[in-house]
Amino acid sequence: MSRWEPGAAERLRAAALDLFVEHGFAAVTVPQITARAGLTTRTFFRHFADKREVLFAHEAALPGLMTRFFADAPPGLTPMEVIVEGLCTLVAPRFDGLKDSLRVRRQVVLSDEGLRERDLRKRALIAEAGVAGFRDRGLDELSATLAAQLAATIIDTAAHRWLDDDTDRPMADVIRETAAALTGVVTDQAGTALTGVVTDQAKAGA
């Protein structure tokens, strides 16, 4: 068997997802995955550290991608513009065309507590990369932290909305829509809070 057999990672991932759905994540072993894929365990471990990484390996590069975009983005962009353009340019293309398999992946992750915790860790890593990136762009620690949390919230929310959508909308469209909705909520709430403060002050002065 060829050492660098084309498509091995994809075959292993597809076989693993099928087995996870059929038997549950905890019950499936690496030899079962490789047998289903028609490959060897040695080939499996060339591509994945363990069976969990079959579900998360394709996301391992996301923090690095975001860090790179923060460094390369034009200095005049607002934090939200950096978030939206970064997610649409670097992250969205990694989702398009994979909706069916990502739906299965989500089903498997939600079925196992350990996998749910691992998924939360992924979000934390994205946020950490965002904090560093925004600090490098000149934001103070609090602003950088809030902006990074916004980025993690947008990608997480947009991903779930995109997976739940039965149309062929590109992931980038859902990201932009989600970011616009979040901006609207923040703006409306800020306006409402400010109005309340002004009203209270007016009553106090009456």
Automatic annotation (TrEMBL):
Residues 29-48 bind DNA. Residues 6-66 form the HTH tetR-type domain. InterPro entries: DNA-bd_HTH_TetR-type_CS, Homeodomain-like_sf, HTH-type_TetR-like_transc_reg, HTH_TetR. SUPFAM superfamilies: Homeodomain-like. The keyword Transcription regulation applies. Keywords: DNA-binding, Transcription, Transcription regulation. This is TetR/AcrR family transcriptional regulator. It comes from Paractinoplanes bogorensis.
